[in-house]
Amino acid sequence: MGGSFVKIEGLEKTLARFDMKKYEPQVQTCFNNFGIRVEAAAKQAAPVDEGHLKGAIFQHPSRLANTFGCSVNYASYVEFGTRKYAASYVASLPPDWKAFAASTKGKTGSGTFDQFVQNIMAWVLRKGIGGNKTKSGKVSTSKQSLDQMQQAAYWIAINILQNGVKSQPFLYPAYNRYKDQLLKDLNAIKI
Questions:
Q1: Which of 3, 7, 38, 119 has the fewest beta carbons under 10 Å from its own?
Q2: What pTM did the predictor assign?
Q3: Secondary-structure breakdown of the chain: helix, strand, coil percentages, each rounded to the nearest 5
């Protein structure tokens, strides 16, 4: 998820009350704690298949700020959804998050349709979708079973291209959950 800035309403006013020469360490601690909380909550909320998305969620504190995001190239598709699903979810977001979502809109992968189907096929194999089961309950690796799973992967890929994927927000809910806590923590600093 690329670079975009999100403002917290009331933050500038709250920060204006501090003499930063004197209070910067306490203020920075508040920002650091905010980033740690957002990162932990986003990781907890992130959907997990192989764990790449969850493992790529990060936060980086900097002077009187905190950057957080996710470094896998498909994070925005998971966060905001695609096509009709993205349209309905993104419409419910505040303006700065809409702008963030718009900055990722229209970017497509560099692969071919066949590569897309094979990526879906790998997921289908992990989940056992469409395949026959053995007597022990495991997914069969017979030619017939693999052909059925390949068909399932193809139709899932077609469905995704036509309809999109549903949003599975993880970063915005985490940010939204702790933005007010940041202001409370800052306001709790005794001047």
A1: 3
A2: 0.84
A3: 60, 5, 35
Q: What are the tens digits of pLDDT across the range 18-62?
A: 999 999 999 999 999 999 999 999 999 999 999 999 999 999 988
What average pLDDT does this structure show over 3-31? 87
- d(C-alpha 163, C-alpha 78), whole Å: 14
Q: Please state, in angstroms and as integers, the Cα–Cα distance from residue 71 to each residue in 23, 39, 53, 183, following that order.
A: 32, 13, 8, 27
Q: Which of 112, 92, 94, 100 is nearest to 75 (CA)?
A: 100
pLDDT band at 108 (very low <50, low <70, confident <90, very high): low
Residue 171 and residue 76: Cα distance in Å, rounded?
10
Element (H, E) at 14: helix 11-16
